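ok trying again, last paste got cut off:
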Amino acid sequence: MFSVIRQDLRAVFDRDPAARTTLEVFLTYAGFQALLAYRFAHRLWRMRLRLLGRLVSQAARWVTGVEIHPGASIGHGFFIDHGMGVVIGETTEIGDYVTLFQGVTLGGTGKEKGKRHPTLGNHVVVGSGAKVLGNIRIGDSVKIGANSVVLRSVPSNSTVTGIPGRIVKSIGERVPEEAMDHANIPDPIAERFDLMERELIDLRKKLEND
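nice, full thing came through this time. structure:
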């Protein structure tokens, strides 16, 4: 477990330029604190001390604003940026080097039993406020735009935006680390409004010339 925690700590310094010291991360980073609590609660869960695991998880939620079910499976190098409002359901599976921003929900879509939460591959980035719901698979190196709602599986090396989420980019190779700037993911709705605005300007010019 300590090896995994070291990799989680390294992920903070690799992906957040504001992180300065290890002590600062331990004392002030709510996402990292929630992840530490999850690592402990998950171990209790696997030991079948499930009530105790849930109590640890609940205490972490009160302190950090991040809710991670101890039954979830999370790989190493995981990073929650800012953290507040993140929810990760019981049967969620998360690969290695995944990044979630604030307000992300990895949840279910109903009251079904068994596997009911999403599976995320490696190197996935989920933008702030995004919802990924149901027993779906998000492939490796996928980027999900802020406030998107994803209800269907997404192939690797894709970019998804919108409500419901749709693929707006698929490049056939791993999304590079510098793509962490999820604010620059294409917004199809904004692009449509820009097109309409340009058409109105052209129409106005034609009317003025007439």
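cool. The chain has one domain: 2-183. The first helix runs from residue 2 to 15.
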